[in-house]
Design brief:
Low-confidence stretches: 1-23, 32-38, 58-64
Radius of gyration: 40 Å
Largest sheet: 3 strands, antiparallel
Structural class: alpha+beta
Number of helices: 10
Oligomer: single chain
Distance between the termini: 91 Å
Strand order of the largest sheet: 2-1-3
Shape: extended
């Protein structure tokens, strides 16, 4: 509390604060030859006022100074556009396309995106996955829906074979599709999708290349990379203690690998099965 805001409401001996010194007063605020004073303080209040004036920075006393605010260093500031450009051009060291792809995705998204959004964008750039799903889409849903008169397909272009729905109708059909997907996944689980896409590949890029170079084709059906998507499979599954030793790895096409799943440890290169 500021000393000048104090008033004399006390029955203990009173003191005035004058030039840093306290003078004893009578109970009526008088001393000989002096008129009554309007501001009176107790002894402890007067001493506290002296201490306050000497120690409170920037409030009382010309000697008081404000503490200096430290200036942030360059490393504490966010990277600017020129620095990001320099990083991409000169400092980025790449073993895959992931770093520049991530930066580009964030730029396109306005500076931030969820992990799910980034994963979707990465999937769009995976040529092997794109070709795999092109083949899957053409082989089953297009063929079945075309048979039912729902879609048409010609020259690589699929389209709905129905009159253009109004906005409300479109929303209703879309909601029904979402409901069907949800019900199916609830009853079948994530295994509905290609399970190999839901497992993080524990085989490093270098080792994966070595196994693909060694086996070249699917060890079960003989499919080449031009015919099917080839995958590196663990003979003894990871879930059952299998390792990344080259002798525990083999190349299978996506179809054979899905059929094998993680319940079988057959080495298809062994003629005995």
């Amino acid at each position: 509390m500021c000393p000048t805001a104090l008033t004399a409401v006390c029955h203990t001996p009173l003191y005035t604060h004058t030039s840093g010194r306290a003078h004893r007063q009578s109970e009526h605020g008088r001393r000989v030859g002096v008129h009554p004073l309007s501001r009176l303080y107790t002894k402890h209040e007067a001493l506290a006022a002296d201490s306050y004036a000497q120690t409170a920075p920037g409030r009382i006393g010309a000697h008081a100074t404000q503490p200096a605010h430290p200036q942030p260093s360059r490393k504490d500031l966010p990277m600017n556009s020129a620095e990001l450009q320099n990083f991409v051009d000169n400092r980025m060291r790449m073993s895959h396309v992931y770093q520049p792809l991530l930066i580009r995705c964030l730029l396109d998204a306005g500076g931030q995106a969820t992990l799910r959004q980034l994963a979707i964008e990465f999937a769009k750039e995976d040529e092997a996955q794109l070709r795999y799903y092109e083949k899957r889409i053409k082989g089953m849903p297009l063929r079945v829906l075309k048979k039912h008169g729902v879609v048409e397909y010609e020259d690589g272009v699929a389209k709905l074979a129905v009159t253009k729905p109004a906005f409300k109708e479109k929303a209703g059909i879309r909601a029904a599709c979402e409901r069907k997907i949800g019900e199916f996944l609830s009853s079948r689980g994530l295994s509905t999708w290609d399970y190999s896409l839901l497992n993080f590949d524990p085989v490093g890029d270098s080792l994966r290349y070595q196994i693909l170079k060694r086996d070249r084709v699917c060890q079960l059906c003989g499919a080449t990379r031009e015919q099917e998507r080839l995958e590196v499979d663990h003979k003894v599954p990871r879930s059952k203690g299998g390792t990344n030793d080259p002798d525990n790895l083999q190349v299978l096409c996506a179809r054979c690998n899905r059929g094998k799943s993680n319940r079988d440890d057959t080495d298809f290169r062994d003629p005995r099965g």
